[in-house]
Specification:
Blueprint (H helix, E strand, L loop, with lengths): L6 E6 L3 E8 L2 E8 L5 H16 L8 E5 L2 H8 L5 E6 L5 H4 L24 E4 L2 E2 L5 E3 L3 H13 L4 E5 L8 H13 L4 E4 H4 L5 H31 L6 E4 L5 E3 H6 L7 H16 L4 E7 L4 E7 L2 E2 L1 E2 L2 E3 L11 E3 L3 E2 L2 E3 L5 E5 L5 E7 L18 H7 L17 H16 L3 H26 L8 E5 L3 H12 L3 E4 L6 H7 L4 E11 L5 H21 L5 E11 L6 E5 L1 H4 L3 H17 L8 E12 L14 E2 L4 E7 L4 E9 L7 E4 L2 E4 L4 E4 L3 E5 L5 E5 L4 H4 L2
Parallel strand pairs: 1-4, 4-11, 5-6, 5-9, 9-10, 13-23, 23-24, 29-32, 31-33
Antiparallel strand pairs: 1-2, 2-3, 7-8, 11-12, 13-14, 14-15, 14-20, 16-19, 17-18, 21-22, 24-36, 25-28, 26-27, 26-28, 30-31, 32-35, 33-34, 35-36
Length: 699
């Protein structure tokens, strides 16, 4: 972050809205409760706080970068627009049939999630594009005009258009859109050839339906937000962080709001990746725990792992396959319902369950005193001595320990015959084990072993639980960056302007690469144009990927390549790259099978200065004048006397041993027994096991 013009990052979460203002290289932050009925209210309140702290007027802000969960919430809560789907005759039920896979094979009462658009709102046209893009059955304009009349009479707010093989030939989809807008210029129309021009009709249709479903809501919200900002004098351009971890223009976000589905978590991954680069960590595990969810992301070679398909709104204990697949570029992470507001209960088997239901900001955990009666993870943390009741969220919320104790007793303790401490311990252990299991599964799915990884923890609840998570995962090094409580919003300020264009264009390695070069040229031009719409004439770099597989396989792996390196010798070049990537992921290659490419992507991004690499410090002093309080230690299952110090009391090189609590404005850092904390020169608290690291034992 080198700009000296004031810039603002603001992140709407399920419980808190975070704002970070950068002025002259210094950061000012604020955390306020999210206002569900009018999310812009929380943004305006947060801006007022950070501007007052920095002693500047909102009109002095040069850039505003925003991330929001509104699109995600609309999909989860089914609160989007009245939407119609227009598709090819014979494919009306694709979004309901899904892929016919069962995410829980032995559940006889399994219920699949309902489609976003009910069957009576799906319409068909008599047309057909072939698998090579040829027109097999022309689309008659008169038929579309008649359909447009029926759409108008039904009072739809938004229409999704998804026709078979339109990613190869979009002429029919564009004709449908043109006719619909001629009939009603105010109608929101999304076509799959622009939203997600990729093969697999279920994923493509579902993605364009999701885009259409949230489009009116997001357009209205963004228009209202810019109006509210102008009313307080903040006339700076507003940009949105997208799910791929870059920044795009407000106009693009309004047209393709489905790309905002994972915007907040993406900012957190970018934040963690910059920390990893600063510390030279080639293998890092990003752990972002907020009020509603916990997000875990693998970072290799200072870059978050990415994907082009992910699921949102999983309905069955966050199990893979139970949600809606969205086919867009995204930072790949596992997200589970485990946050400070996640609610605890005892199920019919007398087991403690935590989440995915959350108390959110309204009413919030019982200790907020806003009417919440059920115990949340924050209530357990308060009872276990991890939180300061008088200084929570910078002192903006006074917590009520007696309310936490009462809620834990009634919902957990009385049912299982436990006192309030053991009830809180049970809730804490369950949520920590849920997150540890999610991290293990995510690592295995990506062919990784977490041994040797360093955890980077942030989010309001992340540093509270990260130490215990490290114990469970066998990770012996943890970094808690400065500003950890608002890490995602800081990540917004560290993200580049970027856009990734994707398209399916099938070929085998034996085929000519002439058509592939043409596709790559078009994707490069498309991605670059999106970036220049944010920052005209900016220097742009490009990253290329081919999605490849053996013939007969069902899914592809991403293979990065440089076009200039393969000019004239593509076949062998792509074969070597694919076999290297395949072996890295699966441990072997398959001899004798042909290789094919199904899709291509080009990412354009502005360049950012590389983070300055820090020189690790060793202990050169102690933190003096620390207070003490009792803290429950989960590993030993007992109360221990812990040191308590403010982060601001740490000088570079200062250290002390756990058990300890380090307090700051937006979070608390728990240092378990057997670990020690050391302040590094960049403000990161490095927490390590007190025994020697494995590499230090080697000669």
């Amino acid at each position: 972050m080198t700009s000296f013009r004031p810039r603002l990052g603001v992140d709407i979460g399920g419980t808190f809205t975070d704002a970070v203002l950068e002025v002259g290289g210094r950061l000012y932050s604020s955390k306020v409760l999210t206002t569900y009925a009018a999310p812009d209210d929380a943004i305006i309140a947060a801006i007022a706080q950070v501007c007052a702290a920095a002693a500047i007027d909102p009109g002095a802000i040069a850039t505003i970068i925003h991330g929001t969960t509104l699109a995600t919430n609309a999909l989860i809560e089914r609160s989007g627009a009245r939407t119609a789907l227009i598709t090819t005759q014979g494919f009306r039920d694709v979004i309901e049939m899904r892929t016919e896979s069962r995410f829980e094979q032995y559940d006889l009462n399994l219920r699949l999630p309902e489609a976003l658009v009910a069957r009576q709102h799906r319409h068909v046209v008599d047309e057909r594009i072939g698998a090579q893009g040829q027109v097999l059955r022309p689309l008659r304009r008169a038929e579309v005009e008649a359909l447009a009349e029926r759409i108008a009479r039904a009072n739809y707010e938004s229409v999704a258009v998804g026709l078979i093989h339109s990613y190869l030939n979009d002429a029919h989809e564009r004709l449908v859109r043109d006719v619909l807008l001629e009939r009603d210029p105010n109608l929101a129309v999304s076509i799959s050839a622009e939203v997600s021009p990729q093969m697999r009709e279920y994923e493509r249709f579902n993605t364009v339906v999701a885009n259409a479903y949230v489009k009116p809501l997001m357009k209205s919200y963004l228009l209202r937000l810019t109006g509210r900002l102008k009313a307080i004098g903040a006339t700076a351009p507003v940009f949105l962080i997208h799910s791929g971890g870059g920044i795009m223009a407000l106009e693009t976000a309004a047209e393709f709001p489905v790309r905002l589905v994972e915007s907040g978590p993406a900012g957190g991954a970018i934040f963690a990746a910059r920390i990893a680069a600063r510390h030279g960590l080639e293998k890092a595990l990003s752990f972002d725990m907020g009020g509603t969810t916990a997000k875990i992301c693998l970072i290799r070679d200072f870059t978050p792992k990415t994907s082009r398909v992910f699921e949102v709104a999983r309905s069955y204990r966050f199990k893979k396959g139970s949600g809606m697949p969205i086919s867009i570029p995204v930072i790949e992470m596992v997200e589970i319902g485990a946050g400070g507001g996640s609610l605890a209960r005892v199920d019919g088997l007398r087991q403690i369950r935590v989440g995915p239901e959350s108390a959110g900001s309204q009413p919030g955990p019982a200790c907020y005193g806003h009417g919440g009666k059920l115990p949340a993870v924050t209530d357990a943390d308060l009872v276990l001595g991890r939180l300061d009741a008088e200084n929570f969220a910078g002192g903006s919320i006074r917590l009520r320990p007696e309310a936490s104790s009462g809620a834990l007793h009634s919902a957990v303790g009385a049912v299982l015959g436990l006192d309030e401490t053991m009830a809180a311990f049970g809730v804490s252990e369950v949520v920590d084990e849920n997150m540890a299991n999610a991290a293990r599964v995510h690592a295995v799915e990506n062919g990784e072993d977490l041994a040797g990884y360093t955890m980077i923890a942030f989010g309001g609840a992340g540093p509270v639980h990260a130490g215990r998570l490290c114990q469970k995962l066998g990770i012996d090094r943890l970094l808690v960056p400065a500003g950890a409580g608002v890490g995602s919003a800081i990540g917004f300020l560290e993200a580049p302007f970027s856009f990734e264009a994707t398209r399916s264009a099938y070929m085998r390695l034996d085929d000519s690469f002439t058509s592939a070069r043409a596709v790559l040229g078009e994707l490069r031009q498309e991605a670059t144009a999106f970036v220049h719409s944010c920052q005209a004439d900016a220097a742009v770099s490009h990253e290329y990927k081919a999605y490849m597989r053996y013939v007969g396989q069902g899914w592809e792996i991403a293979v990065a390549f440089a076009p200039e390196a393969s000019e004239g010798q593509e076949r062998e070049h792509f074969r070597r790259l694919f076999e290297k990537a395949y072996k890295s992921l699966f441990g072997r290659i398959v001899d004798g099978l042909e290789i094919e490419i199904t899709s291509w992507s080009v990412k354009a991004a502005t360049s950012l200065p590389a983070p300055e690499r820090i020189t690790p410090l060793r202990q050169s002093g102690d933190v003096g004048g620390t207070a003490r309080r009792v803290l429950f230690d989960n590993a030993s299952q007992g109360w221990v006397e812990a040191q308590v110090a403010e982060r601001e009391a740490f000088a570079a090189g200062a250290a002390f041993a756990g058990p300890a609590v380090i307090t700051e404005r937006e979070t608390s850092v728990i240092v378990p027994a057997g670990f020690s904390a050391l302040m590094q020169s960049d403000g990161c608290i490095e927490i390590t096991t007190t025994g020697p690291r494995p590499e230090e034992d080697m000669p």
